[in-house]
Amino acid sequence: MSDYEEQVVITCVKSLQHCTICEVPPTMQEKLRLKWPLRTHESMKSQVRRQRSQNIDKTDPSWVHPITNFSWAHPYTNIHQAMMMDILHQLYKGVVEYMNSWVNRHFARKRRHRASRGIRDKSFTTMLDYRFKQVPPFTGLKRFHSQRFSKVRQWTGNEYRDMIRQYAVVIAPLIKGEDAGVMLFIRAVLDFVTLSEYHSHTDETLGYLNHALERIDDLKYTLQGTSSDKPINFNFPKFHVLSHYTDFIRYYGSLVNYNSSTQENFHKILLKEYYDRTNKQDNYEEQILKHNTRRVNVQAMQGIISFRSTMRTIDENHSSLDSRSNKLSPTMDLTDYPLTDASRIRLQDLGLSQRSWRLVADIASRLSIDGLIEAVAIFVQEHRARRGPTDDREVSASSSHGRVHKDNLSGFANLPMQLHSSLSCYKFDGKDTRDPNKRTKEIIRCSEDWRNSGSPRCDFVWVQEYGCLDKSTSEVEQIQGRMIGRSILFITVKDVECEPGPDGQFPRYYGTILSMMRLRNKGRAHAIHGMIEFEDSPVPEHTAPKTGRNGKIRCYDIQTVHRSVHAVPARLDDNNRLWYVNNFIDWDSYNTLFNSDWREENKREVKKVKRRLGRQ
Question: Pairing state of beta strands 532-535 and 578-581?
Fold first, then answer.
């Protein structure tokens, strides 16, 4: 049982004042670090006897309903320890919803204070709505761009989940330096919720959960305002219950197994949808049950088939890595791309379709991409070097550590090339407790006209530039030789200037053209908002040691692409040259994009805030 009001009824405690699990006094529920004696059947019986013998009034803080609880007849159970933690009601509809209202109240109060001094600002709600509209698309993410965030009336678990994935990156530019404690508090709440949603836990992850709880406890007073403002009351059960989460997970396992949003969603699927399929006659309940029975039977058969498929032996000669390698989508139709007479003749001589093939020079001219030919030339040379030189021309082309002289670009400019609209790669999702290394498919988009909207979509990606242990660079540990680039093209290059392979076919190279970004602070996450920042500016040459890829436009093999980057503009204006990497967007980003000393860093920042608040 997870809903608080239902827990109150079954445990006989006082609503909105008592914790159903422990004996915390109503005025001490804001102290999340403190531990209190757990409620038991004997303690409840003793309290009821004391109330009757001493005529204790209902206004007494310890008063409980003097009712004989049915669970007292079961000596081997404790009804109070059976009260479930619930992500939907306690975290989404509880702490997260309160956090958003507290933050809105904090900035509304500051706006009134500034208005009293003659300074007029836009309302925080207006700026928050605009920030949510700035969030770019991401697979599986609901964006609040068509409907204003402040106007959402019906909040479901999915809306709350997607709000949490965007909230930190949306609100970070709205918080100034003097409100750093508010941003740290928001991060602490989002960390707590995200860690609570893990599908499996260890002592280490529970330590992270306790660390987030301590930060919430330390930073909650940053939202209180001045002494003349009405204080926020943190003494309520949905706030106090956070202190029980770690113990509950140790006893019962991951909270995902007890999330009530699943049952509430089934109420819509198993009852409302199936009612629409009945004839609405007197036996409609029987008809709904028959539909449910068929559904369960089908799901059971699907489970059996899935289980048997996992028991099949795998051919050892077939590499599992190959089945999870990055792959390009089908080729694009290039009919609209202009074709010169010389290019048409060359494609005809090569026997290539003019519908899907163009020369590199034609595509560079059509898209006006400076440096495209040189980037493709370096990309082709790297692949030729891996195959090994077969004549003097290839030796001279690959002997300059990837650099191509401008006089030698003509041969590469006349290579045939295909374009693709997307790239499929794989990322960790952390949802399968039996296989922690299981990866899920992710599609990276690159389109001139995304969904016929008239605007392009060019996703950002993490790409491996050099080895993780390359000591010639100064990036921090979590970057591991990766850089961020914005996808411009996904390409297939046919190297007709090279010797054919054993099958008589010219080699094909699969790559992506990227516009490279510059990481701020050497790729270290920001101390306050906790996100990596990058900007669209010239990339220093030292970021590509030993490769020769020193321009802003670079070409990489598709297998060096790790995954997409959910990049959100870091400014309120339309000059999107500074970006945040949203590390709350999914499990993989959250577990890889953080500083190695993040706990010590958080403690230092919390101490600064507490010192400023006079609570050190």
Answer: antiparallel
> In this structure, what token pair is assigned to residue 31?
């102290």
Confirm if 216 and 32 have CB atoms less than 8 A apart: yes
Rounded percentage of the chain residues whose pLDDT exceeds 90: 57
Q: Which two tokens stand for residue 516?
A: 């490279």
Threshold 0.90, pTM exceeds: no
* Alpha-carbon torsion (467, 473, 478, 479), positive or negative: negative
- Burial per residue of 293-311, b for 16 or more beta-carbon CB atoms within 10 angstroms, e otherwise: eeeeeeeeeeeeeeeeeee
Q: Report the sign of the C-alpha dihedral through residues 573, 579, 583, 585, in that order.
A: positive
Q: Report whether pLDDT(20) > 70.
A: yes
What does the radius of gyration of the chain's CA atoms come to, in whole angstroms?
30
* Residue burial 370-390, b: 16+ Cβ < 10 Å; e: rest: eebbbbbbbbbbbbbbeeeee
The CA distance from 337 to 343, in Å, is 12
Residue given tokens 């079961």 in the structure block: 74
**CA atoms of 32 and 570, how far apart (whole Å):** 33
Q: Return the structure tokens found at 433.
A: 């407790």
Determine which of 112-116, 495-499, 540-544 has the lowest per-residue pLDDT on average: 540-544
Task: Provide the pLDDT for residue 316.
Answer: 38
Return d(Cα 465, Cα 443) in angstroms, integer: 21
Please state which of the ranges 78-92, 365-379, 447-461, 537-551 shows the lowest mean pLDDT. 537-551
